[in-house]
Design goal:
Shape: globular
CATH class: Mainly Alpha
Number of domains: 1
Length: 389
């Protein structure tokens, strides 16, 4: 495969995180205030909707862990893209809390295999060049930032002009973008060099999970903390009287920073063999989470979005790179799936727990502070992870 083709494959695969993360998961933070206002939800109920998505994500991660060596990553990547688009369409069609929960679970079941399988395929690009391989993996995960940029540029303005009742339109728009994205993403998956992880692979050796404990624990804590920021940041901004234009600017900054993140992090990812890259990314997202509280005003918000966004996808990038550097190629997909399972469990806890705290204390700021502290703890845990070799 030529270098140019490999980069196009990375970009095409990046539409997976665009759909599974940028649209199907993170955009709910923009929609939450309008759905809560229109449907009369408490913060606990609103947080539960993202927890439901995380439950589906956990189911999808477990399925991917079991299937990726048998079916190959292309099949579960393509199937997950279709299922996620279908779930986004369903979210536009009901006002019932439990049907919304079902569709959010379905989006998670589809989204996790997309994220995992796409990461495994991205890891096969530039096998002989550690620096370009690290960049290709980061480009793949940075696709989630493109989804955040799209939603940040459109949804706040939509709600300002139409009102809270426009939330079904928001879901429909995202379903349409997801449907369109299926075809170029599938073409990239077909072109990815994945022979060593194909259905023909028979390497089912047990993963050395015991020696990955610190990394798994850190990634679990990362899942608990980061999801609180993306779920409740916009709601917190609304309580502070931040205008829709500034909400759009902040969310778009998150997306742009995530898209640019491969470049400043490239040398760190290339050099890190243990938990160093994950540790630094958790620390940076923790700082970004706490900044709106300690540095009030628009500058503080934009700085927070920049630091958080530029570090957000370095977590999954770092655990994918960790698998590539420490395990045989046939185990990369299952390793990413194992890390994603720990991550998904953390995501289940974060939103509903933070929502309950907010309902009990009437303080969104307290939820963000707790999330920032958890991310700092994740950083300390990841620093203890040593290379497996």
């Amino acid at each position: 495969m030529s270098s140019r083709t490999a980069w196009w494959v990375a970009v095409g695969l990046s539409l997976g995180p665009t759909v599974s993360n940028g649209l199907a998961r993170f955009a709910y933070g923009l929609i939450l205030p309008s759905m809560r206002a229109d449907l009369g939800w408490s913060y606990t109920e609103a947080g539960w909707i993202n927890t439901a998505n995380a439950i589906g994500y956990l189911i999808g991660a477990v399925l991917a862990l079991r299937l990726i060596s048998k079916t190959g990553p292309q099949a579960i990547f393509n199937g997950g893209m279709f299922l996620t688009a279908l779930a986004l369409l369903g979210s536009a069609l009901t006002r019932d809390l439990w049907l919304q929960s079902a569709f959010r679970i379905l989006a998670g079941v589809g989204g996790a295999p997309v994220f995992i399988a796409g990461g495994a395929m991205a890891a096969t690009l530039f096998r002989g060049d550690a620096s370009r391989n690290a960049l290709a993996i980061a480009v793949y995960f940075g696709g989630g930032g493109f989804g955040m940029l799209l939603t940040g540029a459109v949804l706040p303005i939509l709600f300002e002009r139409v009102g809270a009742g426009a939330w079904p339109t928001a879901w429909l728009l995202m379903a349409a973008v997801s449907g369109i994205s299926i075809w170029p993403a599938a073409a990239a998956a077909r072109a990815a060099p994945v022979a060593a992880q194909s259905a023909a692979s028979t390497d089912e050796a047990a993963l050395p999970a015991a020696r990955m404990t610190y990394g798994l624990a850190a990634y679990f804590l990362f899942g608990v903390g980061y999801i609180v920021y993306v779920t409740f940041l916009v709601a917190w901004m609304r309580t502070k009287g931040i205008t829709p234009l500034w909400i759009a600017a902040t969310w778009s900054t998150l997306g742009i920073a995530a898209m640019l993140s491969p470049f400043p992090w490239r040398p760190v990812l290339a050099r890190s063999k243990g938990g160093g890259a994950l540790s630094l990314s958790c620390l940076a997202t923790g700082v970004g989470t706490l900044l709106p509280i300690v540095a009030s005003g628009h500058v503080g918000l934009l700085l927070s979005a920049t630091i958080f966004g530029i570090s957000l996808y370095i977590g999954p990038t770092s655990v994918t790179a960790f698998a590539r550097k420490n395990l045989p190629e046939a185990s990369w997909g299952r390793s990413v799936a194992l890390f994603t399972t720990a991550f998904a469990i953390g995501q289940i806890i974060g939103p509903v727990a933070a929502g309950a705290v907010v309902d009990a204390t009437q303080s969104l700021a307290l939820g963000l502070i707790a999330a920032g502290g958890i991310l700092v703890l994740a950083s300390l845990m990841a620093a203890l992870q040593k290379p497996l070799k």
